[in-house]
Structures are given as C-alpha cells and as structure tokens.
Amino acid sequence: SAGEVADTFGFGAYVVGGFVRDMFLCRSNEDVDIVVEGSGIAFAREFARIHNARVHTYEKFGTAVVILPDGFKIDVVTARMEYYRFPADLPTVEMSSIKLDLYRRDFTINTLAIRLNADRFGILIDFFAAQKDIKEKAIRILHNLSFVEDPTRVFRAIRFEQRFGFTIGKLTSGLIRNAVKMDFFKKLSGRRTFNELRHIFEEENPTPAIERMHDYDLLRIIHPDLRPDRKLIANFMAVKKVLAWHDLLFLDEAYLRWVVYFMVLIRQFDRETTRQICEKFAMSPRHQVIFCKDRFLADRCLFYLGRNIPLKNSILYRELSAFRAELLLYMMAVTRSRAIKKGISQYFTHLRHITTSVKGRDLKAMGIEPGPVYREILDAILDARLNGKLRSRDDEINFVR
Ligand code: CTP
C-alpha cells in the first residue's frame, strides 16, 4: 500500500538499502527504508494516516519516521533533486533522482532498490552492480571521493566486512589506507567518530574488527599505544562468551554491549588516560562515570574478592550489589579466577533477588525500639539468609529473638 500512497501523489517510491541487501543475504532486518521521489514528508503523513501510525517528521532534512501500531518502523527519505556536482568534475549526466540518491551512499551493497509503485511494482533496481559485489562478497565504495565526503565510512567498511564475512575490495582498501595516511578523521568530531566505533562494539562478534582496525592503523584514533595483543583478544573472546551466557538466561534485561567491550578495550590505561579518551570522544557524563570511575571500582572489587576465596554469598552480595550489569559482565570476562567467575554468576542468577521476609514493621511488632539497630538486624538476617542459614520466615523471626 506504500506504492498506492505514492501513486496518489504521483511520486516514485522504493524500498532501499540494508533491508534489500539483507534479503539477498538471507538475513533478517527490522528496519525498512523508503526513498520517495517527491515529498517524503507528504508521503509519510498520508501513509501514517491510513495505517493509524505515528509519524515524526524532520522538515529540514525532508525525512520522516513512521511507527506502525505494532511497533514496526519505517524510515522515509526524500530523494534530493538538487543539482549534483560529480567528483572530479566529470561532465554531468542525467540521472533519475533515485539513482542520484543511491549514488550518494556508502557501498555498492547498500544501493539495491525495489520499486513500490503499481507501474513496475517489485522490480529490482541495481544501478551499481550491487548483486555482483554481493556474489563476490566484496565491500566497494561507489566513487573515489567517498571517504573524503564521509570518513566514518572507513569504520562502516570494516563493520560490514566482518559482519557478512566479506572482503574490502582492493581499490576501496587503498582508499582507506590513504584516508588514514592523510588523517581525514581530524575533521570529524569526536562524537561522530565514536558513534561509528560504538556500532562496531554492538556487533555480534567485534573481535576480528579490532584486528582489522589494527591492520589499517586505525586503533591509534583511540590511543597510539593500543594493540590487539594476545591478552586483549583473549579478553574480547571472553566478553563474547559471557554476553552469550547472559543473553541466554536474561533475554529481556537490557544492557549496553558496547560498554562492556569498550571497558575491556581500554583496560590497560590508567585513570588519567581513560579520562582523556572519554573527553576526546565527547562521551556523556553518564558514560564517563562508567569508564573513569566504575570500571576502576570493579577492578578493585575483583582484587578484594580474590583475597576472600572461598567466597561467602554474603560477601558476594555486599560487594556486587552496587554494580550495574555492564560492570558485572566486565568482571566475569576479565577475571582469571574460576571461583570469582562462578561467584558473580551465582550473584546474577540467584543472590541478587534474595531479600529478607522480615521487614522493619515486623521488628516494630516484636517490640524493638526503632533506630539504627534496625539496619543492623536486617543486614544480619540478609547475611544469614544469603549464606543459607535461614530458610523461612519463621527462621528469620527466631533468629531475631
Ligand atoms: N549511509 C551512507 N553513509 C554513512 C551512513 C549511512 O551512505 N556514513 C547510507 C547507507 O548506504 C545505508 C543507509 O545510509 O544503506 C542507512 O544507514 P544505516 O541505517 O546506518 O545502514 P544499514 O545498512 O541499515 O546498517 P545496519 O544494518 O547496521 O543498520
């Protein structure tokens, strides 16, 4: 029906980009991008009206997001009509606006489009040999100035290459080396650079991407001393395992994957260097606290736990309850001690949910004068409970008596 809406306005409309690419790769993709030749905003409003959907429009960019009642999201962009100056001032060639829109994109594999209008509905449009590159498993830019236009594409090239098991093409690879040599990144803001890096650490397996970044001498963007040595790689693989364990058991508990990987990545650096890295990437204060403070507390906690093996449940509870999931996962990944790892997983699956059944009001009913002693009594009950000495409410009441 998107095609029908476009037809009523006389606009061309196409599904483009990642969604079509992933169809060819037999991968699922939840994001649909539609390019409209005309007004993307008018199209999105009408489409949303018909489907009872919410719509957010960004007039300045001619873009809109439509959110259907079931949560499905559609991004709509307007194929820009303005005159396009070709790189190296080649003579201008007439292009339809969809072709121009696709030509501006990062890699050939992202330039497939499917027509939605009734006239030629469903035909696949492949202006830039995307199908060939998908077949050859190659990441290729569309023109030589691609990385000049947008240096963040260097990180995207590596991310797509590793995600799909593709290889960056020869010419593209040379242009990446050139971009690194000429330091195209210096004109990028720290925030934008980091935003792309973050996407790499959100991937299913970021380890090979780190090695690839090292191949291209890109890790120095984070810090000149950063190397994917054996220890770092081992820690990265450990994170992957721990996250898989967590996701299997706690499917619906949200946390930030990239945060865990990034903590491990910059673990070798002291507090001051870490602070400088966070500043350079203009991280939010919330994230700075995690990397500059919590991460160091977590390492100290690991040290403390190491000196208290065998670990009592009450110690695990007391030491770990202050940490958010990302930090606990970090500790599980970097510790070399089986006992600690087991202790943290025990905390995760079990201990953190334990509470006392006796509460303050029960103590009052038992005739105990309210005061700081309540905290002491309740803590003592919780400790005994955690260590398996109390099993029921009656046990707890007798314990107080
Ligand atoms: N794009 C680009 N240059 C960039 C970022 C994006 O040309 N620096 C283009 C890409 O061609 C992409 C489209 O904009 O198809 C949408 O970007 P994004 O949603 O980031 O790409 P996806 O391919 O959907 O990536 P992912 O699968 O990771 O969501």
UniProtKB/TrEMBL annotation:
Instruction: Specify the signal sequence span.
Output: none
Record's family?
A: Belongs to the tRNA nucleotidyltransferase/poly(A) polymerase family.
Name of the protein in question = PolyA polymerase
Q: Which organism is it from?
A: Desulfonema ishimotonii
